Amino acid sequence: MNNNRREFLQTAAGTSLAGIASAAGAAEAGEGATAVRRRKRSAASQEMPRSMTLLSIRSQYGDTLGVKTERGILDVRRASLALRLPVPLTLDDLLQQGGAAELAQLVVAAQKSRRADSLYIEEAQITHGRLFAEPGKIVCIGLNYRDHAKEAGEKVPAVPILFNKYNNALTSHGATIRLPTEVATKFDYEVELLMVIGRRAHNVRPEDALQCVAGYCSSNDFSARDLQLELDGHQWMIGKTLDDFAPIGPYFVCADLVEDPNKLNIECRVNGETRQHSNTSSLVYNTEFLVSYISRHFPLEPGDLIFTGTPPGVILGMPKDQQVWLKAGDQIACSVGNLGELRFTLA
After folding, report:
1. What is the pLDDT at residue 38?
2. Where are the alpha helices (DSSP H) in the chain?
3. Are 8 and 27 in contact, with CB atoms under 8 Å apart?
4. For strand 331-336 and strand 265-270, is the pairing parallel, antiparallel, or unpaired?
5. Integer Cα distance of 141 and 163 in angstroms
6. Coil, strand or helix: which one is 112?
7. What is the three-class DSSP state of 325?
8. Residue predicted with more confidence, 24 or 233
9. Mean pLDDT across 6-25
10. What angle do CA 115, 117, 120 make, to 5 degrees?
11. What percent of the chain has pLDDT over 70?
């Protein structure tokens, strides 16, 4: 784990709010700075972020948190330095180590400061980083929409089908995904609602399960169908966990800002053409059941990710003479409810 994740980058000594811009600049240059460590939460902490829409900002210092506000995107790293308020700098740290109260305090302090304009960035000027880099688990659900199971020529599963991706698959909103044509040729999209765990869930009841969810994202379970289905034994994992095969973003939306995760419109477009359009009300196994079911088999920990399944309209479900697999240059756009439009390009 690098310094950007283990500790706060440096902050200038003797800073006051009156010198926010110059102090932040000096700290970034390493002038007269002191390392500050943030207290880690105990394992028993139940703290989760609330009422915020978060994103990741890519910079020379690595991928760090941003908070979407009416004033613009609050650069959490820069604000932490300037206001001398230690906070988590990544979503992984926020969820796995805690610090939701400190982050909320930073947002309020920045909003109250009349001299903090330099802490905000226009969203159009941001290059998005990865929202997640080191989750403990990435759990995926197969065939979780009835019409998708039908188009794939499969039965509706009697229990949720679980498989996994690995951290190498994680990538950002706005990413360019290089198609690994040396090992596969049949590339397909799968827009999905992503659930993000914020509280340890082990043997939880369905009625309690969503209390363990910190927030939600738009995502895509990108797939190489020939690796997934044409190798001996149906290699689901290898067909779905190649590099950058799990784009997520642009936002992490806290759970309290999502009225009902089981009633969200979900859509995928390829080069502007709508390919998938449905609603999470059509999930075979809804969000609370999935968390409960998974937690009966192994514990879910803060920061773990759950891809909840894709609706019908994938290339795999088309008649074989109409299957035109994704290629370099294609542009994919995915949206789920109020979670923002995830976009990425293929190369």
Report:
1. 47
2. 3-6, 20-29, 76-83, 91-97, 100-112, 146-151, 206-209, 225-229, 236-240, 287-297
3. no
4. antiparallel
5. 6
6. helix
7. coil
8. 233
9. 39
10. 140
11. 86
Q: Is 185 exposed, middle or buried (0-12, 13-18, 19+ CB in 10 A)?
A: middle
Tell me the two tokens of residue 123.
Answer: 């969203």
Measured distance CA(142)–CA(201) in Å, rounded? 21
What string of H, E and C letters represents the secondary structure of 137-176? Answer: CEEEEECCEHHHHHHCCCCCCCCCEEEECCHHHEEECCCE
pTM of the model: 0.89
Range 101-105, long-range pairs (CB < 8 A, 24+ positions) = 101/47, 102/38, 103/49, 103/52, 103/65, 103/67, 103/76, 104/49, 104/50, 104/52
pLDDT in tens, 43-101: 435 689 999 999 999 999 999 999 999 999 999 999 999 999 999 999 999 999 999 99
Residue type, 209: A
- Residues 295, 203 contacting (CB under 8 angstroms): yes
At position 5, the amino acid (one-letter code) is: R
Q: Which two tokens stand for residue 335?
A: 């949206």
- Identify the CA nearest to 151 among candidates 286, 318, 326, 333: 318
List, in order of start, the domains of the chain with CATH numbers.
Answer: 3-125 (no CATH), 138-346 (3.90.850.10)
DSSP 8-state class, residue 231:
S
In 113-260, alpha helices (H): 146-151, 206-209, 225-229, 236-240
Q: Residue 309 has what DSSP assignment?
A: -
